[in-house]
């Protein structure tokens, strides 16, 4: 491979802001694997956000990119998997598997798509120093006849359109809007863009905690919601506490600590088979490796208000929830899925302009 921009390249990043800023180029915030695609003839490499290759995990996408993108080009975008008209991040994570046979089975069963939103090089020209507006024009020209599973991300400079996208696109599994300064150069690994994500709050049961790696203080709170059958389901964690707060939480939660997990709604957490019928902490996965997944059980009585962006398949928080406050006025059994706001369905094909796989 001999390109004017060579791997590895870490992608340009965005910093979070509360509102959509004016005077920008706006795009959807895709919920997938960020990837920089390098193509030089028959050679294709899919770089990840960290710079490590993703190529072996998406053989069907490598083949599609060879057919659809310019022979010598470097593209920034997102690898996504769509099911039933919306993005499916869980299906995407399943693709990162050590067995080649499993990868190829999933490539046929849940094929991936690539959504391009920036162009870093074309033919023999590096475009890192070119303003965004010009890079976007070159991207649209280079991919004007592209077909699925490769797509060009919709973009607009109309803030009212961006606000409408922010409300509508969540129903297709996207998680906000990206705002890009029109004159910005491509700045690898720098937060030179802005991201605006949905934030909602929910009242949840704090049913356990994990210790922090630094010592006997709280690392993360384990959160639960009751389903319609009255079962407490593990929906995620809240973390990112200050050192002082971690120590305070240990003392605050001490009266609720159970001597052992027997009698706790998540008592079967260490039984791998139990995870098939309930959401429990410590689910076995290849991501955890040798990580200690043990936790301290609490009597499920304390209620906290947390902020979250959106739910994955309506079952769990997609990202780490942010602790807001305790809710002594709420009872644990009132913390149900029914309180959660469901986004209005929006077909992903309406965004991409062509059917998603």
UniProtKB/TrEMBL annotation:
Its EC number is 6.5.1.1. Keywords: Ligase. Signal peptide: none annotated. It is an enzyme of class 6 (ligase). It catalyses: ATP + (deoxyribonucleotide)n-3'-hydroxyl + 5'-phospho-(deoxyribonucleotide)m = (deoxyribonucleotide)n+m + AMP + diphosphate. Residues 105-227 form the ATP-dependent DNA ligase family profile domain. It holds the Pfam family DNA_ligase_A_M. One of its GO terms (molecular function) is DNA ligase (ATP) activity. NCBIfam families: PRK08224.1 (NF006078). Belongs to the ATP-dependent DNA ligase family. This is DNA ligase (ATP). It comes from Streptomyces thermoviolaceus subsp. thermoviolaceus.
């Amino acid at each position: 491979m001999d390109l004017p921009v060579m791997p590895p390249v870490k992608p340009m990043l965005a910093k979070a802001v509360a509102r959509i800023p004016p005077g920008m180029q706006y795009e959807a915030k895709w919920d997938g694997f960020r990837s920089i695609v390098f193509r030089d003839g028959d050679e294709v490499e899919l770089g990840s956000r960290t710079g490590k290759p993703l190529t072996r995990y998406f053989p069907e996408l490598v083949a599609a990119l060879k057919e659809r993108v310019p022979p010598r080009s470097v593209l920034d975008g997102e690898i996504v998997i769509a099911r039933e008209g919306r993005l499916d991040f869980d299906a995407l994570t399943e693709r990162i598997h050590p067995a080649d046979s499993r990868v190829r089975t999933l490539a046929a069963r849940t094929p991936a798509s690539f959504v391009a939103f920036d162009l870093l090089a074309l033919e023999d020209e590096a475009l890192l120093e070119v303003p965004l507006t010009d890079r976007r024009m070159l991207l649209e020209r280079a991919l004007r006849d592209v077909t699925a599973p490769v797509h060009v991300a919709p973009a607009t400079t109309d803030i009212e359109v961006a606000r409408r996208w922010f409300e509508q696109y969540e129903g297709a599994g996207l998680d906000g809007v990206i705002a890009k300064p029109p004159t910005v150069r491509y700045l690898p690994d720098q937060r030179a863009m802005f991201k605006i994500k949905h934030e909602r709050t929910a009242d949840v049961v704090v049913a356990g905690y994990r210790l922090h790696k630094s010592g006997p203080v709280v690392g993360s709170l384990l959160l639960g919601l009751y389903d319609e059958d009255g079962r407490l389901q593990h929906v995620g964690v809240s973390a990112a506490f200050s050192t002082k707060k971690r120590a305070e939480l240990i003392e605050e939660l001490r009266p609720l600590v159970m001597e052992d997990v027997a009698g706790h709604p998540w008592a079967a957490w260490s039984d791998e088979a139990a995870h098939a019928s309930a959401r429990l902490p410590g689910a076995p996965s290849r991501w955890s490796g040798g990580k200690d997944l043990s936790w301290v059980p609490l009597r499920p009585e304390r209620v906290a208000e947390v902020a979250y962006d959106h739910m994955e398949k309506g079952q769990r928080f997609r990202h780490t929830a942010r602790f807001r406050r305790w809710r002594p006025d709420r009872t644990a059994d009132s913390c149900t899925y029914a309180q959660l706001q469901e986004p209005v369905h929006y077909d992903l094909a309406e965004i991409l302009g062509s059917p998603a796989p």
